[in-house]
Amino acid sequence: MVAQQIPARIRWAVDFMDPQPADHVLEIGCGAGAAAELICSRLETGKLFAIDRSESGVDRTKRRNADAIKAGRLTVRQIDLATLRVPVKRLTKVFAFNVNLFWVRECADEVALLHERVVPGGAVHLFFETKIPEDVPKIVKGASAALSQGGFRVSVVDNKQPPVVGIIGRR
């Protein structure tokens, strides 16, 4: 099997999030499974629970990360965040890349669910690729407001290369 490329933007975001060996991580919108691959490579006793609304995204993540699933480090489910019941009682980190839920529409219920599950000192990491610079203020404002209204302390990181903006909500 040919090794699949991991985009620089995903590498940068996962490096920034800095998953630790014992972390319990939720990935929202796992897509092709590249971030899951990087996160699982850093886990020892920790686990990643990856979700996506798309059946094809779930299938791709499962295929790409079959070894991590067999090892018990990864669980993948086709589900929407709004209806999620996280099997891990306490999460240390939440990761999402290009998930527009947090700045496009009302998401108070989803953020409340995250606030309930993220441990004190844990964080929600929302990353967005910024191909259209004019969108950055709208993304930052919307995602920051959603997290802060949900009880998270928000900080923003703006990386130029690769062009990624991160909105980090700490509990």
Helix and strand composition category: alpha/beta
Biggest sheet strand order reads: 3-2-1-4-5-7-6
* Low-confidence regions: none
The total of helices stands at 7
What is the strand tally?
7
Please state the overall shape, judged from the principal axes of the Cα atoms. globular
> What's the average pLDDT?
93
In CATH terms, what is the fold-level topology?
Rossmann fold
What value does the Rg take, in angstroms? 15 Å
Task: Kindly report how far apart the N and C termini lie.
Answer: 41 Å
Protein name: Class I SAM-dependent methyltransferase
InterPro entries: Methyltransf_25, SAM-dependent_MTases_sf
Organism: Nocardioides plantarum
Domain Methyltransferase: 25-122
Question: Can you characterise this structure?
Answer:
This protein has 171 residues and is of the alpha/beta class. It contains 7 helices and 7 strands, in the order αβαβααββααβαββ. It has a single domain (8-170), classed as Rossmann fold, CATH 3.40.50.150. Helices cover 36% and strands 29% of the residues. A 7-stranded mixed β-sheet has the order 3-2-1-4-5-7-6, with helices on both faces. The longest helix has 14 residues, at 136-149. This is Class I SAM-dependent methyltransferase. It comes from Nocardioides plantarum. One of its GO terms (biological process) is methylation. GO terms for molecular function: methyltransferase activity.
